[in-house]
Amino acid sequence: MEILRDKGEVRPCQLERDIVSAARAVDLKSPDWREQAKPLIELIPELAAMDFEFYNPACEGTVLEHSIRVAQALPDYLVLTGLLHDIGKIKCQVMEDNHNGPEFPRVMRFTGHEMAGADLAKPILERILVDWLGQPHWAKVSHMLKLNRFHDSRGRYFERDFDEMIGAFETEAEIEDLFLLWQADDDAHTKEHVAKSGPVLESNIMETREYYRNLF
């Protein structure tokens, strides 16, 4: 049975449920989606800083739009992960010349945003994910931070951190959550990007799943 805290007005995990509802209520196809997102940003004020353009041909709109789109494609228990998976891009922005087409002569890169994002997400998750005593639910916080850390490690072609990624997830259910995040993140890009990356991602998920099962 849940107990009340904060003068009896908030139940543990109620804030998370409110965030899920607020995220799902945003219609990103509507021109006033920012107005609709205000209740969500009131619950997680840090999201406001993510409302900036990607400047990348693979992405549409702002980082905040993309993150809400990812969150909406995930089950309720991973919505927070979807919302925060790219928060590190606030601190990791570098404009570079783009030689792949005239539409985007310069593109924005976000090298290192996964680690930066885990650092930024940690106090947010500790504030939201609490147990019945009002203390951080460390298991949930830890799991979501691992998902944040490895959300761009899309399979064995990322040799530099593949073994670290595999070792971070203790159960098959945990790493399946990572696959859900990979898929939702990829699907939230442009149709042109998904058409090229979709088959590669599917193959990488299958290969990583098989590797993990054989290992453990």
Helix/strand layout:
Layout: H1 14-24, H2 33-43, H3 63-72, H4 79-84, E1 94-97, E2 106-109, H5 113-128, H6 138-149, H7 159-168, H8 172-187, H9 191-215
What does this structure look like?
Helices cover 54% and strands 4% of the residues. It has 216 residues and is mainly α. The model is unreliable at 1-12 (pLDDT under 50). It starts with 13 loop residues before the first helix and ends with a helix. It has a two-stranded antiparallel ribbon. The protein has one domain. The longest helix has 25 residues, at 191-215. Strand 1 and strand 2 form a beta hairpin. The chain has helices at residues 14-24, 33-43, 63-72, 79-84, 113-128, 138-149, 159-168, 172-187, 191-215, and strands at 94-97, 106-109. Helix 3 (63-72) packs across helix 8.
> What string gives the helices and strands in order?
HHHHEEHHHHH
Strand tally is: 2
Strand content: under 5%
Quaternary state of this entry equals: single chain
Q: How confident overall, as mean pLDDT?
A: 84
* Total count of domains: 1
Number of helices: 9
Helix content: 40-55%
What about the largest sheet?
Answer: 2 strands, antiparallel
Which class do the helix and strand fractions yield? mainly alpha
- Rg, rounded, reads 18 Å
Give the overall silhouette.
Answer: globular
* Arrangement of strands in the largest sheet: 1-2
Which blocks of ≥5 consecutive residues have pLDDT under 50?
Answer: 1-12
Summed up:
The protein has 216 residues and is mostly helical. The protein has 9 helices and 2 strands. It has one domain.
